[in-house]
Amino acid sequence: MPFDAAHRLASIKIKDRAKILSPSIAKANFLHLGQDLDEIKDFVPWFHCSVQDGVFVPKIGVGSPIISAVRKKFPEIVLDVKLGCVNPENRIDEFVNAGADIISIHPESTQQFPAVINKIVSKKICAGVVLNPGTSVSVLEHVLGDVDVVVVMLVNPGWGGKKYISQAISKIEQIHELAANLGVKVPHISVDGGVSTSNSQIFLDAGANVLVAGGSIFSAADKAEAVASLLEPSPEIAGFE
Predict the structure, then answer these.
(1) Less packed terminus of the chain by CB within 10 Å, N or C?
(2) Could you state a single Gene Ontology molecular function term (predicted)?
(3) Which CATH class is domain 5-238?
């Protein structure tokens, strides 16, 4: 496996519930992508790469050439790829070869959901599942022991709009309960789709440990401070007493 893939894989597998910020590269300035990522690489262990095919997700987003370029420039960073496309089983090899460390898929995007999870695992990378606001936690029952990441979406990918915060909190709690009932380790629980300093602590308190954020980081004058504020929001910012 290229670069320091074994080290990156081992770091994902630890699951010590450490808080992780995974900046969404889709919100960076693509004319200066390398520079934007350079400014934050020392403060975050993961980069989030949201792939959108214009079919399963209405927008078209990051593709494998960009992920490959990011991998070459940042061999130490875990690339957290969320594959929003139909029939993801046809794209696994493409994104493994591009340098993905995690590939998360939507259960609704394939007719062979457990088989696709197994295919990802067979490539010696980490598998993940994406739960849209309308997706039940019950879909995890037969795969939770095989996945390292569950992504809880606050919005419907590509649509934006209303943020389903209370439903996301409930899902985070349900994932913990399901892991306990199945006797498996709790995976990394990631929250995506509108994480900010006003709500990040709520998700961490509920039991998530990975926060995906984009605009609030890349638009900040001090990106290091933006990262710190998301992981350790002050009581005043977070709205707590």
Answers:
(1) C
(2) metal ion binding
(3) alpha beta
